[in-house]
Write a structure and sequence with these properties.
Shape of chain B: globular
Structural class of chain A: alpha/beta
Order of helices and strands of chain A: EEEHEEHEHHHEHEHEEHEE
CATH superfamily of chain A: P-loop containing nucleotide triphosphate hydrolases
Number of strands of chain B: 0
Oligomer: heterodimer
Low-confidence stretches of chain A: none
Distance between the termini of chain B: 37 Å
CATH topology of chain B: ABC transporter involved in vitamin B12 uptake, BtuC
Number of domains of chain A: 1
Number of strands of chain A: 12
Helix content of chain A: 25-40%
Largest sheet of chain B: none
Distance between the termini of chain A: 35 Å
Number of helices of chain B: 15
Largest interface: A-B, 35 and 26 residues
Helix content of chain B: over 70%
CATH class of chain B: Mainly Alpha
CATH class of chain A: Alpha Beta
CATH architecture of chain A: 3-Layer(aba) Sandwich
């Protein structure tokens, strides 16, 4: 498999602070794979995702998209190839689902923002794929949590990018909607062949969905590999719990026995 | 009962249709213009209005065409400019509480214009340029103050720094008008805003500049829509967020300064009109920009008509009347929005 995104020697720091939150990160994302970034709170997952999305400029090191430094790629061209959904996206009161999805076409629009048939088709396809056709005239702020998440994913889909970066797409959803969203994501990958990089907190979800997981610990990459690398030792070292992740018929189950050491600082 | 419900539903659908509001506001503007032409120191009977307007030999023709009409047009342009400026600022800070008056941008334009008047009393041509630079200066100071080392534009920080900048600029305006009472216009009439004496000479530069601002705001409507999403999402779909924000601020500064050089510090139009339009038709700049422009034009024209006529022959400052509407509306937004 060829890598589409490549992270070299990355050091990241939030503006106005004096501490690197991610240090010396090396990572490759293969074309067409689902990579889940997992790790405890504050371990640098979301920050790394922001750097992949060309949102946070690295203090040191670089992010390459097909060998090209992402900061050298013009913003619109980058947006046609890489789409990003933040953790808690906000939208104005009264914006309808269809109008939100249309926002995803910004990078494709012609001169003076001309709207073309291909744009209308992409919006329609995204609405169909996310099963939102009937809700398209509803205001986003009147939808349920699961529907709203689907609307946001439809906006990202409409961007027709080859790489989707999603920050906790299941946060705040109930169990059924969590699985619905994960199911949609794996279907998107299957149907459209896109590459997915997502930050996930639920390890069982990550293990089920991902081809590979990248485990973050204290701002560094602890380990990257197939989901089986989430073994007991890793769970103890990284998450500080005495637990096991077991697989049963394609589903993963996390069994937590006890905190490994309640006094240990993660 | 069912019919009533159906009528209500239909009425709600019509009320959300931008065309309805455009027609209503245009009608209001037109009606205000006609009434404003009719009433004044000498009122013209309604049946003679057309004659007086188009017949050059009519005794009232000069008053109508040289005094009343340009004043209505100037008022409408000032209103349109202020409403779009307010709309753009609200978009930039993603908060309905922004207004060029509240944020001190009008005051920046006013101070620079006053300084120009005091230093070069003869060069009136420079007035709009100076007020634009003043407005831009105020925007830059407010943005820098609100930006801070963490590089985040919080709406609360922005409004607070705007209020601070505004009070400093107001103090400076008061000082200038006090020290140069012989050259500067009277403090009160300048700070509350007035269209007294506005003529075609004002409209001649007011119109093209306001048009430039309005056309720019409308042509960038899609980008401004994206600014209403959060920064990360807007950047994610390919928008240059900071660049768009700066352009919107520049455009707002242009429009506010144009209005200030014509009418002094007219406040609250930029607050009331875009919010009212947004409540009626939703958050899209495709409808917000034109409807705010027409609404602002109608509001200021109407307020100026009232200012001229309610206490005639005494003329009230139009800005004071607008503040009487705008102040309570501001409180209403605060009450509705803040937890």
């Amino acid at each position: 498999m060829t890598s589409i995104l490549r992270v070299e020697n990355l050091h990241l720091r939030h503006p106005g602070t004096d501490r690197d939150v991610v240090r010396d990160l090396q990572l490759e994302v293969a074309a067409g794979e689902i990579l889940c970034l997992v790790g405890p709170n504050g371990s640098g997952k979301s920050t790394s995702l922001a750097a992949l999305a060309r949102e946070l400029r690295p203090r040191h090191g670089r992010v390459l998209l097909d060998g090209e430094d992402v900061w050298r790629i013009p913003r619109q061209r980058f947006a046609r190839r890489v789409a990003r959904l933040p953790q808690e996206p906000q939208c104005p009161e009264g914006l309808t689902v269809e109008q939100l999805v249309m926002a995803g076409r910004h990078a494709h629009l012609g001169l003076f923002g001309a709207w073309r048939t291909s744009d209308a088709n992409a919006v329609h396809e995204a609405l169909v794929a996310m099963d939102l056709l009937e809700l398209r005239h509803r205001a986003v702020d009147t939808l349920s949590g699961g529907e709203r998440r689907r609307a946001w994913i439809a906006m990202v889909l409409c961007q027709e990018a080859e790489v989707l970066l999603l920050d906790e797409p299941t946060a705040g959803l109930d169990i059924r909607h969590e699985w619905e969203v994960l199911d949609l994501l794996s279907r998107i990958r299957r149907d459209r062949g896109v590459t997915l990089v997502l930050v996930l907190h639920q390890l069982d979800q990550a293990a089920k969905l991902a081809d590979r997981v990248a485990i973050f610990h204290r701002g560094r990459l602890y380990r990257a590999g197939d989901p089986s690398c989430l073994d007991d030792e890793t769970l103890r070292d990284v998450f500080g719990v005495d637990a096991s992740l077991t697989e049963d018929g394609g589903f993963h189950q996390l069994t937590i026995r006890a905190p490994a050491d309640p006094n240990r600082h993660l | 009962m069912r019919t009533v419900a159906r009528i209500r539903l239909r009425a709600a659908a019509v009320a959300r249709w931008p065309g309805f509001w455009a027609a209503f506001l245009l009608f209001l503007l037109l009606a205000t213009t006609l009434v404003a032409l009719r009433f004044g120191a000498v009122s013209i009977p309604t049946d003679q209005l057309a004659d007086a307007l188009f017949d050059v030999d009519h005794p009232m023709h000069a008053v109508l065409v040289q005094v009343r009409l340009p004043r209505v047009v100037a008022g409408a342009l000032v209103g349109a400019a202020l409403a779009i400026a307010g709309l753009l600022l609200q978009t930039v800070v993603r908060n309905p509480l922004a207004d060029p008056g509240l944020l001190g941008i009008n005051a920046g334009a006013g101070l620079a214009a006053l300084a120009a008047l005091v230093i070069w009393p003869d060069v009136a041509v420079l007035l709009p340029l100076f007020s634009f630079l003043g407005a831009l200066g105020a925007v830059v100071i407010i943005l820098l103050a609100a930006w801070g080392p963490r590089r985040r534009l919080g709406p609360l920080k922005l409004i607070l720094s705007g209020v601070a900048v505004q009070s400093v600029l107001f103090a400076a305006i008061a000082l200038v008008t006090f020290l140069y009472a012989d050259r500067a216009p009277a403090f009160v009439s300048f700070t509350v805003g007035s269209l007294n004496g506005a003529g075609w000479s004002d409209v001649r530069w007011l119109a093209p500049l306001a048009l430039v601002g309005a056309v720019f705001a409308f042509s960038a409507r899609r980008s401004f829509d994206l600014l209403l999403l959060d920064d990360a999402t807007a950047a994610g779909v390919g928008l240059g967020v900071q660049r768009t924000r700066l352009l919107a601020c520049g455009c707002a500064a242009l429009l506010a300064s144009v209005a200030v050089s014509a009418a002094g510090l007219v406040g609250f139009v930029g607050l009331v009109v875009p919010n009212a339009v947004r409540l009626a038709t939703g958050p899209h700049h495709r409808t917000l920009v034109p409807l705010s422009a027409i609404g602002g034009a109608a509001l200021v024209a109407l307020a100026d008509l009232a200012a001229r006529t309610v206490a005639a022959p005494l003329e009230l400052p139009v800005g004071a009347l607008l503040a009487l509407i705008g102040g309570p509306y501001f409180l209403f937004i605060l009450w509705r929005q803040l937890p």
